[in-house]
């Protein structure tokens, strides 16, 4: 494993995020670009592992990098007691570790004035990365900007099928089989040419200042995943403050005439209040399992998430005060997949999803974010978010994913409309 990093302190002509991204693409290296909620600075990581290691999401053990986990990560959850370490699929084929990990072989930090700091691991790959980066920059200035046309790919049965599945879920819940399930669907669109992921990322950053914005390129899968998620799963900052959020209940952030609604005046139905309370209760149950009582609970409050509003409750723990430094890792394993993306009870809801959804969720409704990154010279921090409001780019095609939390009071057509609104979060920016 490469550990030595060289700080490139004298940067005369400063490369942009696009330069880094395109260099990684040209060399076939995975890359992640992100911006934390309510921050302006952007961060980028390039990994020199052409095939990414699959790891257990252990925040104590992992080096600096970026983690991205699929929804179906329950085997990893079951492995809570295993010794936590990086496990490579190629070596241990029956490994439960499923989180893809981009080690920070290249790390760059962009402030409002452009590149402010970069490190590149000292290796042959590091050398070729630097060379390519310089070469690409010299060529790039001549590339003319292009305008994209986005067309929806027809899927005539999608609505009927989704509505039918919601009705089945409602029936099952009325018969007491489970209390909540989140059913998702996809929507596919075609671009006139392969879009520039960094340009889309920049647009998402501008439009959604309070969201976690990311673009993750995974060459071994031929995919780029982009998201603007409002949902924090687990954070542990440089001062040892742990945070998680329960988020559920959805309505448009706009009146029918297009004027923005005031969050303080949002009206929530009993169904939505209960749906969100189930997520909060799920989090509290996780705290109970580890006998942690010293958490601060704030909410529920109405939260703006781009074109939508949700009900959210924040949970905070000072891990230094409670002497629980590994809380982030422990809670991550207990929480994922939360009832905001799976259901209650979790295993029954998970089985229902597997049986009824016709698409593979892949990385949608998993989690993603920076791990052990020291962004402000304060110490390493990890910020993992639920991977929603996202799309998968494969060349010119994009697949958007959206789900809705169902209870026995759900109205199938309304749930379909909710998934349409959720798709609009990205669609309205990329179209
Ligand atoms: C599942 C999604 O979102 C989740 C489900 C919500 C709901 O059911 O109201 C609200 C916020 C998210 O926790 C999604 O966006 O795909």
TrEMBL record:
The record's annotation in Pfam families points to: Chorismate_bind
Enzyme Commission number, as recorded: 5.4.4.2
What chemistry does it catalyse, as a reaction equation?
Answer: chorismate = isochorismate
Give the highest taxon in the source lineage: Bacteria
Question: Which residue intervals define the domain Chorismate-utilising enzyme C-terminal in the entry?
Answer: 159-422
Q: Where are the transmembrane segments?
A: none
Q: From the Swiss-Prot or TrEMBL record, what is one GO molecular function term?
A: isochorismate synthase activity
Q: Which residues form the signal peptide?
A: none
* Gene3D superfamilies, alphabetized: Anthranilate synthase
Which InterPro entries does the record match to this protein?
ADC_synthase (IPR005801), Chorismate_C (IPR015890), IsoChor_synthase (IPR004561)
Which keywords does this Swiss-Prot/TrEMBL entry list?
A: Isomerase
Q: Which family does it belong to?
A: Belongs to the isochorismate synthase family.
From the Swiss-Prot or TrEMBL record, give the protein name: isochorismate synthase
Origin species: Spirosoma soli
Query: Which classification does the entry list for the species?
Result: Bacteria, Pseudomonadati, Bacteroidota, Cytophagia, Cytophagales
């Amino acid at each position: 494993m490469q550990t030595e990093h060289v700080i490139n302190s004298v940067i005369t002509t400063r490369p942009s995020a696009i330069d880094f991204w395109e260099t990684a693409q040209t060399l076939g290296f995975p890359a992640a670009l992100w911006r934390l909620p309510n921050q302006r600075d952007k961060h980028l990581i390039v990994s020199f592992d052409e095939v990414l290691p699959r790891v257990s999401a252990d925040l104590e053990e992992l080096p600096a990098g970026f983690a991205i986990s699929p929804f179906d990560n329950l085997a990893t959850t079951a492995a809570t007691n295993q010794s936590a370490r990086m496990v490579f699929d190629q070596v241990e084929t029956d490994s439960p570790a499923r989180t893809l990990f981009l080690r920070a072989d290249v790390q760059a930090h962009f402030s409002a004035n452009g590149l402010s700091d970069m490190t590149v691991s000292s290796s042959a790959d590091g050398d070729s990365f630097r060379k390519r980066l310089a070469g690409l920059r010299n060529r790039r200035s001549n590339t003319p900007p292009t305008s994209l046309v986005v067309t929806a790919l027809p899927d005539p049965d999608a609505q009927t099928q989704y509505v039918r599945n919601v009705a089945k879920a409602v029936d099952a819940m009325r018969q007491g089989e489970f209390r909540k399930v989140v059913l998702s669907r996809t929507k596919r669109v075609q671009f006139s040419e392969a879009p520039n992921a960094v340009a889309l990322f920049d647009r998402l950053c501008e439009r959604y200042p309070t969201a976690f914005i990311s673009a993750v390129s995974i060459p071994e899968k031929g995919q780029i995943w982009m998201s603007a998620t409002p949902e924090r799963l687990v954070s542990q900052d440089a001062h040892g403050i742990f945070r998680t959020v329960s988020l559920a209940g959805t309505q448009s952030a706009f009146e029918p005439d297009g004027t923005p609604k005031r969050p303080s005046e949002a009206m929530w139905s009993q169904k939505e209040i209960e749906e969100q309370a189930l997520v909060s209760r799920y989090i509290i149950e996780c705290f109970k399992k580890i006998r942690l009582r010293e958490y601060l609970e704030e909410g529920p409050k109405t939260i703006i998430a781009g074109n939508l509003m949700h009900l959210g409750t924040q949970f905070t723990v000072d891990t230094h005060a409670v002497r629980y430094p590994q809380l982030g890792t422990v809670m991550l394993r207990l929480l994922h997949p939360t009832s905001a993306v799976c259901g209650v009870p979790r295993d029954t809801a998970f089985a229902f999803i597997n049986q009824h959804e016709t698409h593979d969720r892949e990385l949608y409704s998993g989690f993603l974010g920076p791990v052990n990154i020291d962004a402000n010279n304060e110490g390493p921090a990890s910020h993992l978010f639920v991977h929603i409001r996202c799309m998968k780019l494969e060349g010119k095609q994009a697949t958007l994913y959206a789900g809705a939390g169902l209870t026995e009071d759900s109205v199938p057509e309304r749930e379909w409309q909710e998934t349409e609104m959720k798709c609009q979060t990205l669609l309205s920016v990329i179209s």
